[in-house]
Amino acid sequence: MKLYLIGMPGSGKTTLGRALAAHYALPFLDLDAEIVARAGQVIPAIFLQHGEAHFRQLEADVLREIAARPGPLVLATGGGTPCFHNNLAVLNAAGITLWLDVSVDTLAARLAAAAETASRPLLATAGPTEAWLRKTLDARKQFYEQARLRCTEAACSASAVAAQFATAGVALPPA
């Protein structure tokens, strides 16, 4: 079983992904970290030197490689991952997708730190964070809503998600 976490920047995909991986004793991967390892440069540098289109193709390539790997894992995707190159279909075909549906107010508060914004190239050039988040969520929501499961809590916990999995009949290794 592969579990893919999707959602906006600041929704908690990496934090929850690590917690779920520990809870179920599964490997955890962060798609952005995998892209950085493959490209040999940080994401802001990829955007700056090669542009977003190049980054999105690299993201799709790395995602497909991870989805094709045997064995279970938990993967935190990038916020835009499901919205490009038919990536959401790949995610849904290869495992269970979980949308972390967090309010714009919560996202803005989490991303308020200058270091957070600087490490996210689309946010770094976006202007007012809250306005960018609202506009971007409006554009991405049609993709996120196609996730098989959804967590609407501001801070989804591993135990709350595990309970949701049990209710939905999602088969995971024993915790």
Automatic annotation (TrEMBL):
<keyword id="KW-0057">Aromatic amino acid biosynthesis</keyword>
<feature type="binding site">
    <location>
        <position position="79"/>
    </location>
    <ligand>
        <name>substrate</name>
    </ligand>
</feature>
<dbReference type="InterPro" id="IPR000623">
    <property type="entry name" value="Shikimate_kinase/TSH1"/>
</dbReference>
<comment type="pathway">
    <text>Metabolic intermediate biosynthesis; chorismate biosynthesis; chorismate from D-erythrose 4-phosphate and phosphoenolpyruvate: step 5/7.</text>
</comment>
<dbReference type="GO" id="GO:0008652">
    <property type="term" value="P:amino acid biosynthetic process"/>
</dbReference>
<dbReference type="GO" id="GO:0009423">
    <property type="term" value="P:chorismate biosynthetic process"/>
</dbReference>
<dbReference type="GO" id="GO:0009073">
    <property type="term" value="P:aromatic amino acid family biosynthetic process"/>
</dbReference>
<dbReference type="GO" id="GO:0004765">
    <property type="term" value="F:shikimate kinase activity"/>
</dbReference>
<feature type="binding site">
    <location>
        <position position="140"/>
    </location>
    <ligand>
        <name>substrate</name>
    </ligand>
</feature>
<keyword id="KW-0479">Metal-binding</keyword>
<feature type="binding site">
    <location>
        <position position="56"/>
    </location>
    <ligand>
        <name>substrate</name>
    </ligand>
</feature>
<dbReference type="InterPro" id="IPR027417">
    <property type="entry name" value="P-loop_NTPase"/>
</dbReference>
<dbReference type="Pfam" id="PF01202">
    <property type="entry name" value="SKI"/>
</dbReference>
<dbReference type="InterPro" id="IPR031322">
    <property type="entry name" value="Shikimate/glucono_kinase"/>
</dbReference>
<protein>
    <recommendedName>
        <fullName>Shikimate kinase</fullName>
        <ecNumber>2.7.1.71</ecNumber>
    </recommendedName>
</protein>
<comment type="function">
    <text>Catalyzes the specific phosphorylation of the 3-hydroxyl group of shikimic acid using ATP as a cosubstrate.</text>
</comment>
<dbReference type="GO" id="GO:0000287">
    <property type="term" value="F:magnesium ion binding"/>
</dbReference>
<feature type="binding site">
    <location>
        <position position="32"/>
    </location>
    <ligand>
        <name>substrate</name>
    </ligand>
</feature>
<dbReference type="GO" id="GO:0005524">
    <property type="term" value="F:ATP binding"/>
</dbReference>
<comment type="similarity">
    <text>Belongs to the shikimate kinase family.</text>
</comment>
<keyword id="KW-0963">Cytoplasm</keyword>
<feature type="binding site">
    <location>
        <position position="14"/>
    </location>
    <ligand>
        <name>Mg(2+)</name>
    </ligand>
</feature>
<feature type="binding site">
    <location>
        <begin position="10"/>
        <end position="15"/>
    </location>
    <ligand>
        <name>ATP</name>
    </ligand>
</feature>
<keyword id="KW-0028">Amino-acid biosynthesis</keyword>
<dbReference type="GO" id="GO:0005829">
    <property type="term" value="C:cytosol"/>
</dbReference>
<feature type="binding site">
    <location>
        <position position="120"/>
    </location>
    <ligand>
        <name>ATP</name>
    </ligand>
</feature>
<keyword id="KW-0547">Nucleotide-binding</keyword>
<keyword id="KW-0067">ATP-binding</keyword>
<keyword id="KW-0808">Transferase</keyword>
<comment type="subunit">
    <text>Monomer.</text>
</comment>
<keyword id="KW-0418">Kinase</keyword>
<keyword id="KW-0460">Magnesium</keyword>
